[in-house]
Amino acid sequence: MKCSTQHLRSTTAGGARRRPARPAAVGEDVLVDTLLLARAAFLLKSVSAVGEFAVYWSEGGRLLERSYDFNLEGRQPVP
């Protein structure tokens, strides 16, 4: 299974430009990323739906107690 892809690189300040992918392909990529994250032993994540989805789809809910959110304020809520 391939877990990485080649990315466009640019030598200019404007960055690399490419055509946007079709929405279905972007959705498939997000789904695959989420399901792969759900298999992790521990998850460091930002506030995002992808990270939350991975936590809830982890086997037996193991990431419910084995994940850490980096909140925007820089604080972890106390359980």
Shape: globular
- What is the terminal-to-terminal distance? 37 Å
Which percent range fits the helix content?
25-40%
> What is the H/E string?
HEHE
Number of strands: 2
Q: What is the strand content?
A: 5-15%
Q: In terms of structural class, how would the helical and strand content be classed?
A: alpha+beta
Largest sheet: 2 strands, parallel
Q: If strands are numbered along the chain, what order do they take across the biggest sheet?
A: 1-2
Mean of all residue-level pLDDT scores: 78
Q: How many alpha or pi helices?
A: 2
CA radius of gyration: 16 Å
* Uncertain segments: none
What does this entry look like structurally?
- The chain has 79 residues and is of the alpha+beta class.
- The protein contains 2 helices and 2 strands.
Q: Helices and strands in order, then pairings?
A:
Blueprint: H1 23-37, E1 43-46, H2 49-57, E2 67-70
Parallel strand pairs: 1-2
Helix pairs in contact: 1-2
